[in-house]
Amino acid sequence: MDDEVGLLQTPPTGRCPITRLEGDHGGTLSTDNLIEKLFKRGSWKSKLFIIYQLISWLTTPTVTYLSVFAGINPTANNKWTCRSQKCKDMVALNSSLLSEFPCRITKEVDGKTELLLKSSDIEWELTHSSFAVDFDLNCDVGTTKVLKTLLSSIFFVGALTGLMLGGYLFDHIGRKRSALLGYFVGVVFTLAGAFCHNYYFLLVIRFFQGTGFFLVATGMYILAVELLPTKYRNYANGWAQILWASGYPIAAGVGYFVKDWNYMFLTAAIIAFIFNIHVIFCFESPRYYLIKGDTKSAKRSIEALAALAGTKLDLENIELEDLGKAQEREQSFWQQLMDFFSYPSLLIETLIQMFLWFFVAMSYYGFNFGWGSIVPDRYLGYLMASVGELIAYASVVPLIAFIGRRRAMMLMFVGAALFYLIAIPEVKLGKDTDWTLESVCCLIGVIFISGCFSGIYLWTAELAPTSHRGLVFCMSSSAARIGSFLGPYIFNNLAPITHKAVPLGGLAFLSLLCALGSYFLVETGNEETALTGQDVVTRRRGHRYRLI
């Protein structure tokens, strides 16, 4: 037998054979060891159950990028006619105005440029309705571009708020209950978008969309990771990221086939309701119960997992080894904060992770809210970005399995920096095309950034101890939301007023700093899951900072 405490199966009785544990008179078994053995013996049902917990990641991009497709600006190719008497009077005096693009019909008032004709004066001939037109945000005059970009960025302010709240909720009311709360908030406020006819109400909706859906996605990710053995986490993480990338075609499809922007929100609410309903029926992580000292509930969760694996588990006389460590400390928010000072290794690793998350999110969302400025066609841009991300997520799984988390992250950050720098020169790829070297390099660069996005999720789940996993995840993801808030301004606002070398060069420099930060973190691929801050200190002892 491989382990001192093993699983011995008695002859089957009925559908679920009873699995007894050797040493069931006062024996002990770690949660890691038990879950690993269950998965070795597990049926397809248990694996499918874990896989389905991550399906929330399929719908999150649909909601995240709603503002991109629901707020498309009219162009000079779109025809228009007069709606208001003011417009009709202006055209009567100068009929050539009808051949002008309304965003160019302006006047100077006290040194500021103002539009002569607003959306309320004009009837546009558009294939899709747009909140940009409804709320007078379709012309880049004055503060309108900033106000429109805010509808994308406010989503991440909401996500930041949700994750700061989640930092407490995940570790104190549980992963499932927190995700359930996020599910309710996210669906309700997305549905409210179907009845929205006011800019400030839309801001509120976008804020609570971010709060709700990032609570769901993060909570279900933590839960799924804690129900998996270490060797399967890399594959589950890759699956989560593939689901995320597959959400882009859904987002583009909603934006393309649904013609009314209010109905886009309605469609997204229905999709989110259906694909997140499993949150209601899933069971809580046994690791959460252990850190709370609730042995009975932890054993019930493990027995529920065993039932999915086709095994009836007898844990009545077995002591879970992890419980001893958990009982040595009181699980409270204050204790969690104090642990950062008691265990400096935990603090240092968390700060490095927060910086990595900040940069990855800023770069990732800078691209994904900026494809309209980077590539000639926004729909094509999102579809190609989806293909690039699928390539990244399919490649990063074997890459991490082969060279480990730490080396893979360093390699991907350096690759991203290289393509940022190559994208700086002004090179047009042909006389009759709007494609440039920047367009192609950014599409390649997003492959590396998407790989980093995938890797940092997995690495954080393994670096953070169970006692702090919810808190560390939310601190790191909160740093990412700050980066996400800044990201849309990189290509939409910063690049046009400076030179594209400013954002691209800055991103390259930060990417190299992230590679350096990854160098100082530890490899976790062959390590047992840390339960407390003391385990983090123990894991770091004897760690050698080497590249090969």
Describe the structure.
The protein has 548 residues and is mainly α. It has helices at 31-41, 44-53, 56-64, 66-70, 85-93, 131-134, 144-172, 175-192, 199-226, 230-257, 261-275, 286-291, 295-308, 321-327, 333-342, 344-368, 371-374, 378-422, 437-463, 469-497, 501-519, 533-540; strands at residues 7-9, 18-21, 28-29, 80-82, 106-109, 112-115, 122-124, 312-313, 319-320. The chain has a three-stranded mixed sheet with strand order 1-2-8. The chain has a two-stranded parallel ribbon with strand order 3-9. It starts with 6 loop residues before the first strand and ends in an 8-residue tail after the last helix.
Largest sheet: 3 strands, mixed
- How many strand elements? 9
Helix and strand composition category? mainly alpha
Task: Give the helix level as a range of percent.
Answer: 55-70%
Low-confidence stretches: 1-26
Strand percent estimate: under 5%
What gyration radius follows from the Cα positions, in whole Å?
Answer: 26 Å
Please work out how many helical segments DSSP would assign: 22
